[in-house]
Amino acid sequence: PQFVTIKQYIGELSQLIKPETFYRYHDRWTNVLQTACALVAFSIYLAESRLATPADVEEYLGFKVNTENADITVFVITLEEYLHGIISLFNEISRLAVNSVIVNDVKRPQHISAFASELYSGFQLLNLKNDSLRRRFDSIKYDIKRIEEVQYDLRVRNLI
Fold first, then answer.
1. Closest Cα partner for 128 from 87, 92, 91, 156?
2. CB 45 within 8 A of CB 89
3. Which of 55, 67, 105, 130 could form a disulfide with 100 if both were Cys (CB 3.0 to 4.6 A apart)?
4. Of 78, 92, 68, which Cα lies nearest the Cα of 31?
5. 3-class DSSP state for residue 77?
């Protein structure tokens, strides 16, 4: 239900931005779109235990993810915003692994670990430049470590 409101606000923003000025003012709203992409990614992970695709983001937020890095002719969600959202998913699922154990769901951290490892392997294939995306990518290893520590603790206590 909240995605309807988010979609509405992004739509209002898109009406204000002309394609030729998209990148001039892009830094004003990029963090909000990154967060919106992260919300979509986490919602889909919780509901379906899978990664949100650019098509899912478009469905939830109402705007296409510019996966081809094409010229801007209409308001879009950039590929970098989508990827930042996916990186934020790592932060959330590492917290979910810890919280799952607190409520005695000891199987969920195993699924989270497999998902995070596979997703991390995919990110390693990307050639990221030395920018904010690269720095955020470097933080993923700490989330992976946190998930692995949860699994280690469960194994030591013979809970899995």
1. 87
2. yes
3. 105
4. 78
5. strand
